[in-house]
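Thread: Newbie trying to understand structure tokens

Hi all, I'm a second-year student working on a class project, and my supervisor (Dr. K.) asked me to get a predicted structure for one chain before our next meeting. I've only ever worked with sequences, so writing a 3D structure as a token string is new to me. If someone could post the tokens and maybe explain what I'm looking at, I'd be very grateful. Here's the chain:
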Amino acid sequence: MQVVELLDRFSADYKVSQHRPAFSAQRLAHEEHVHGMNVAKPVVVTADGRDYVCVLPACCRIDFDALRTVLGADHVELADEDHVAELFADCELGAEPPFGSFYGLPTIMDQRLERDDYIVFQGGAHDRGIRMNLAEYKRIECPRVYSFSYRI
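---
Reply by user tm_fold:
Sure, no problem. This is what the structure looks like when written as tokens:
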């Protein structure tokens, strides 16, 4: 399953760009010439045994106390790389898109991403960026929106 194929099934409005490989969300921001607040960084966490895709700006980190609260969980931890690779088998490790629903996972989006009209994210490969209007992303993904990050 390719991300762009799924976006096309939703008749999504998006733009794909090619760039030098970017192995971090902040590097993606640099390659795409956008601010880190516009880059949607997906982070897979496990909360009380259930996986979630948490989507936050590239220049932010997860506040695990806040995330535990919004999820109503006792224990939240980052998923290990092997597990993420299994969940997103069609993606290069570290280039997962912010669409947990495409992989059977719930998606939690940080409200900081709502400050701008668009987001940029990796489309399954380190050398591919996808730019999408935030409203379009929310229409397709329907993420739950909470505050669970802090700026670094």
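A couple of things are worth pointing out once you decode it. The CA atoms of residues 36 and 58 lie 5 Å apart. The two ends are 34 Å apart (CA to CA). Feel free to ask follow-ups in this thread.
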